[in-house]
Amino acid sequence: MQRGFLSEAPLNGLAPFDTTPMTIRRAMPLEEIGALLRAAPESRRLLYETAFVSGLRANELRNLTINHLDDERCGLRLDATWTKNRKPGFQPLPRALMMSLQTFALSGEPRKSYEKNYRRENPKLIAPRNPLLHVPSNPARTLDRDLKTAGIPKKNPKGKLDFHACRVAYINLVLESGLATPKEVQELARHSILDLTMNVYGQTRDERLSATVEGIGDVVLSQNCVSDVYRQAVGAEHETAQLPTNEGSCAARQYGSGGRTRTYDQVINSHPLCQLSYSGTKYKSAVKDLKKIVWPPISVKPSTSIGVVFLEGVAARRMAQFL
Question: Distance (Å, rounded) from C-alpha 28 to C-alpha 114?
């Protein structure tokens, strides 16, 4: 045999492979997950529960035995011979699910289900020893029947549902929980790179986007919650305004008539501080009244001719109620 070398690499100039997923799976919301679990028979319900809280693939679930349960660490030991990445691993599980799996496996029901199906499909097949769960030979087809029973559409504009969609739902539930860092989410998903976790499996929900914007709006718009009466007292840029002169009003009773103007200050436009100015003999009386109506107490530093009182945050909004 003669060996030789090529003059140049034959793969030079080869374009990168397109890794865009051909199938778009959607992440099931909790409402659909609950409906599916209620509609499924007991044996399959336990299978779906394990898939939704572990993210294990169908073939990985099929290879689990009772010996893979780790009571001390509360999870499943994964063998390198049947994991997709060919690496040993550990997948934590909720304690309640661990107990249910152990009880179900010791009852012998998973093995009986395998024997029943194998006799019908292929008598030459041998049921696995001590299986932890019974995974149908075609889990996607079985899931379709349970989805139909639960009244859940298989396809919608966001994508389709098959058994692998349970893994998609698991990863998104972990992301949405806010309990794990991105690196921890990647570890729980057993992905080699974070980009796969976030940009292939990670999805967004319209209701969460709307709720996030509402929360931001509450924070931003609350900075502009001073009452209209206070706006009139402060005035607009390059303008001055007077306090209301209604007989018997709070402002008229405590600070005299509305004829006195309040000095506009540019600082109001820069941060949530409210400025009031008092001059002459009214200053000491105004400070005394302010200390009565504003909580928490504020410190006042008089100037030569004008006393300036800065009220921050809650104090500013509280003060606006009295103007």
Answer: 28
